[in-house]
Amino acid sequence: MHPPHGARHRDAPRVTLLTEGTYPHSHGGVSVWCDQLVGGMSNVDFTVLAVTGTGREPLVWDLPPHVLHVRTVPLWGPAPPGRAPRGRERHRLAAAYERFLAALLDPRAEDGFGPALYRLAHAAADGRLGPFLRGDRAITVLTSVWNRPGPVREARPTLHDAVTATGLLEHALRPLAAPGPRDGVAHAVSGGLAALPGLVARERYGVPLLLTEHGVYLRERYLGYRTAAYRWPVKALMLGFFRLLAEETYRRASLITPGNRYNRLWEERGGAAPEAIRTVYNGVDPAAFPPAGPEPGGPVLSWAGRVDPIKDLETLIRAFALVRAELPTARLRLFGGTPRGGEAYRERCRALAAELGHGEAVVFEGRVEDIRDAYAAGSVVMLSSISEGFPFTLIEAMSCGRATVSTDVGGVREAVGDTGLVVPPRDPAAMAAAALELLRDAERRRAMGEAARLRVIEQFTLRRTIDTFRAVYRELSDPATPAAPGARVPGVRAAGGTRVGSAAG
């Protein structure tokens, strides 16, 4: 836990920002969004409850004085203190854990997920859940549930599977023990584990829970577990947990503000009431991202982001190889850092570029001090992700007046409109064809870039985003005006995309 950072404002709204793997300990699009939100609301008192890896991550953002506290919840650090329950208490906790596991594996038992989760949360607050999950009884309970008739038993889970799955759940449930808010607003900036303290605060103290999804957390867990090195019984258990956690969060949130309309499809399917969902687009300051100026000499494609499998740089590199077959002087410049643990993926991408014969033309530039330099470095800015929300790099590049080629994921098509080219994900040929189309037509690039900047100015400004969330915080904080699904807040799109209030989202 970091020390208090500032002093409270009298009568200021109080917001607890719930994050996972992002602000204020990491860079990236969601962290940028959090920094902009917090920095734009000096009249709101913020506490940040950050789910992190080890708890030793440094702060990488300068925090303003109205961020009063930063508390960390390490998932993979040393085991938190506590003692295992005994006697009747141990029996009751084992029974609740059995109901919890049954909900993850048996569709007929899913209604028991919420009650069991909150029973586990009480044990976590008393320091008993972690020691219980690290003991033999938890493994025995899981093997018993796995051995009930059903598809998991048919997969013949092993004792090693049970130990692995129990360990994963013990770490994933650590946020249940976090000291969440007792008043104000709990604002989860993603679904999943970050929302756990908010769910507990809503259950115990009636604290309104605001959920903002940029990407779709559940979809990204599905994508990640496809290649995870676990056997199917472990994957089935963990994905069952993430699915039911998403559904519980959607049902219990006072308000859901996805960053694009694509996300609302997942949220509605997960049980969210359509009238409780309001789309609030990300925004940038057009003055901070002015036109980038002259293009580089020669055909250059640029990309900006974190070097991560979800950004699918392999497809981009394969597409670039096809571009270079037509334009031998073309270059690809990749700007962005590599998260800890992602070094192997970066080297795999380097090896792919070399294998295709273009290693010298694909340059990993690393983090750049001024991200605008990354957009100015290319004649066309590329985005190759297989999952996105409403990507900052895209609207920043648009604000800089650069033509873009992007994959059709998340809110990309909503952002681009007709000011850039959108192609299917994981399709190198389509991406290469779009890039060649723009690289060969300077006039079209110029027209698209101008239209893209105008679109940002008209629809996706930072001021509009901040004003919208300020109004949402006031609405949820004021007991006299409790959060009512569909209530009017300036700058927010209601269900179905119709405009509400004086400003479009």
TrEMBL record:
<dbReference type="GO" id="GO:0016757">
    <property type="term" value="F:glycosyltransferase activity"/>
</dbReference>
<dbReference type="Pfam" id="PF13692">
    <property type="entry name" value="Glyco_trans_1_4"/>
</dbReference>
<dbReference type="InterPro" id="IPR022622">
    <property type="entry name" value="DUF3492"/>
</dbReference>
<dbReference type="Pfam" id="PF11997">
    <property type="entry name" value="DUF3492"/>
</dbReference>
<protein>
    <recommendedName>
        <fullName>D-inositol 3-phosphate glycosyltransferase</fullName>
    </recommendedName>
</protein>
<dbReference type="InterPro" id="IPR047691">
    <property type="entry name" value="PelF-like"/>
</dbReference>
<feature type="domain" description="DUF3492">
    <location>
        <begin position="14"/>
        <end position="275"/>
    </location>
</feature>
<feature type="region of interest" description="Disordered">
    <location>
        <begin position="480"/>
        <end position="505"/>
    </location>
</feature>
